[in-house]
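Worked problem 6 (solution included).
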Amino acid sequence: MPKLNETSHSRRSDFANDEPIRPEDAAVLDSPVGHEDRHGAEPGFVGADDVDQPLGARPRSEITGRHDEGAGANETMDGLSETEELTRSYAEDIPTGDNDEDEEDIPVFERGRSNTDL
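Solution. The predicted structure is:
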């Protein structure tokens, strides 16, 4: 059985599929972005500059977080906007005939605005 050549720089791994890395096979540049650490940090240390990079993207809520007319946010139960509802109420409430009757004689559901100032 051949004898394992162990040198001073190698150490045994705890795992069968993880062999010790020889210094000549180690990564030349340890930084994730591929340049040497020029700030005197320990090798393998990942600095905030390496992690926090701007992506140039905008959150989707900036695009979809606006009011969309007709989407139902400010509509009445009938699906009308505030302006359409006001127009309908004025059109329904304008009396079409003579107003000789006393309001007490008119049923409540037919009264509406009998004296409308347009």
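Discussion: The radius of gyration is 40 Å.
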